[in-house]
């Protein structure tokens, strides 16, 4: 069964996986029900979470109920505990909307919620992040997580994110990041998917971001807070929620 889960979650195209998840999630949640770990997004607890990852599998990271990963649960806790995202009126733009968040955010009465992506079936607006069809200074909050590592011209994408964010607005732009690496590594000559997966961690990634990611965002004009939110949580909660200790949330202000 473990091998079957890996196949389902790692090899099926994302749009199809989104549709299949409506059937898969209730089965997984029932089979793994327990009291060891908790998904803070829906409050449900399980005896274990599922493994996930391209190439090297990370154990105990995928929630059986929401299909959230460590980064999703960390972002949820930050938004819920540290912001007025769920209470104040906000105009929100969400890139490549994650399955763990989509229905919840869509149903929030306080949010004017727009999703965008080139391929996702959950996108309201099909758009290229490097050429957005939105007016300047339009959104209070922009969520663009684990997208920029796929974009060859991430400078142009960041400029577009800055353009459509309102002055005083907040953008959260999580990426897979190697904090042991000072500078970002990219090589456009690497086009083979297997080689990309080996070097960049996933077949459709085009770079590995280092610690200089935050300074690149600053060079675009953002004020960036490097939020090490797991350091603000009790260690037992980091373990119970299956978070990645030390993961940084890039909170960007205009």
UniProtKB/TrEMBL annotation:
InterPro entries: Methyltransf_11, SAM-dependent_MTases_sf. It comes from Flavobacterium macacae. One of its GO terms (molecular function) is S-adenosylmethionine-dependent methyltransferase activity. The keyword Iron-sulfur does not apply. One of its GO terms (biological process) is methylation. This is Class I SAM-dependent methyltransferase. Keywords: Methyltransferase, Transferase. Residues 123-172 form the Methyltransferase type domain. It comes from the Bacteria.
């Amino acid at each position: 069964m473990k091998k079957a889960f890996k196949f389902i979650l790692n090899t099926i195209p994302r749009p199809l996986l989104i549709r299949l998840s409506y059937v898969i999630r209730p089965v997984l949640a029932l089979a793994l029900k327990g009291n060891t770990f908790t998904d803070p997004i829906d409050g449900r607890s399980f005896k274990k979470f599922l493994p996930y990852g391209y190439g090297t599998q990370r154990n105990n990271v995928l929630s059986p109920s929401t299909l959230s990963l460590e980064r999703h649960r960390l972002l949820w806790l930050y938004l819920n505990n540290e912001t007025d995202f769920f209470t104040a009126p906000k105009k929100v733009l969400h890139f490549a909307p994650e399955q763990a968040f989509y229905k919840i955010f869509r149903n929030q009465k306080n949010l004017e919620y727009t999703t965008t992506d080139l391929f996702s079936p959950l996108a309201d607006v099909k758009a290229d992040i490097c050429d957005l069809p939105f007016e300047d200074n339009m959104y209070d909050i922009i969520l663009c997580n684990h997208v920029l590592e796929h974009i060859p011209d991430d400078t142009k994408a960041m400029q577009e994110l800055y353009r459509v964010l309102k002055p005083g607005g907040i953008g959260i732009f999580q990426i897979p990041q190697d904090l042991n690496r000072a500078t970002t590594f990219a090589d456009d000559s690497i086009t083979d998917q297997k080689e990309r997966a080996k070097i960049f961690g996933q077949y459709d990634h085009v770079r590995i971001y280092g610690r200089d990611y935050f300074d690149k965002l600053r060079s675009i004009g953002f004020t960036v807070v490097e939020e090490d939110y797991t350091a603000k949580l009790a260690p037992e909660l980091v373990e119970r929620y299956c978070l990645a200790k030390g993961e940084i949330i890039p909170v960007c202000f205009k």
